[in-house]
Amino acid sequence: MNIKGDFIKIDDFDITDIKARVLDISEDIWNADAFRQKTFEVHKHTQTIKLIMDEDGRHTGPTLHPIYHELENVITPVENCIRRNYNNTLKAKKLRKKNPAGYFIRMILVRLNAKGIIPKHVDTGETLMKCHRIHLPIITNEKNIFSVGESSKALKAGEIWEINNRHEHGVVNSSDEGRIHLIMDYVLPGEKVKDTDGSNLTC
């Protein structure tokens, strides 16, 4: 979604519980589904675990995969934190008078390989243009540099950030360990957004 600026910090989150569960995920699970890295060249240095995701790019009625339910007790507090931050705004309260509640349309765990890169790109497709793209770093270090538009940051573990995915963005992992983020796409139905080309979008 096109937001004001490149990054917006949403909150800080205690990742102790979710980190422990993520570190227990086997390599077989990390390597079980190659859809995202095979479909999108920019993600070829990553592995993805789908918690909430549909390959048809739908904007409503998302599929919750079995591993979402397995991790639900550590995922729910993250979801609640994000809902509080978005749903308590004046804009969201006005939207709720005529629209359904906000919801997660996608949620994925993504591991970027040691020394791997995600080349700069712009997210396209209707649903990616109409959601808040949120990152929660779980395993990371100062040698992981996330660039969005004109800004570059080493996002710290436990910081929740929204990025402007309508600006060019990419990541360089110069370290010797994989970087793991929980990436979430949150929709506020009825929200109106002006895209980078000046067009009006309704989420």
TrEMBL record:
This is Aspartyl/asparaginy/proline hydroxylase domain-containing protein. Gene3D superfamilies: B-lactam Antibiotic, Isopenicillin N Synthase, Chain. It comes from the Bacteria. The lineage of its organism: Bacteria, Pseudomonadati, Pseudomonadota, Gammaproteobacteria, Cellvibrionales. InterPro entries: Asp/Arg/Pro-Hydrxlase, IPNS-like_sf. It comes from Oceanicoccus sagamiensis. Pfam families: Asp_Arg_Hydrox (PF05118). Residues 105-187 form the Aspartyl/asparaginy/proline hydroxylase domain.
